[in-house]
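2024-03-11 09:14:02 DEBUG pipeline.ingest accepted 1 chain
2024-03-11 09:14:02 DEBUG pipeline.ingest length=124
2024-03-11 09:14:03 DEBUG pipeline.predict start
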Amino acid sequence: MTNQTAQPRVLVQRLAIIFIAAVAVLLASTVSVYLYRVSDPYIQQVLELDGNPERGHAIFEINCAGCHGAYATGDVGPSLEHISHRKSDVTLIQQVISGNTPPMPKFQPSPQDMADLLSYMKRL
């Protein structure tokens, strides 16, 4: 093999190593953020509870329907249809309680109310 044909192969190998390293760093940071969120006592408590979707629907109507619509199809806020297919339970809880997605207000229901709301959102 000549030096000219070896250069592209070496370049591809180096790019592959860089790509693998970047993916590893990304996965490590994602896992650490996830573990931090799961280690949050409030989130742990919510995940340990059984939610009642009927109660969750009532909580949704009082606190969420004004922006997300009565049927969660979106209005001022986005549609929440099939939200549990797009976001994990931990991410949903974090989004509800954080207030980090303006104009959504910070909202921290009791752990049971959050478990009920989460069980309702899983049915959307």
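2024-03-11 09:14:41 DEBUG pipeline.report The chain has seven helices and no strands.
2024-03-11 09:14:41 DEBUG pipeline.predict end
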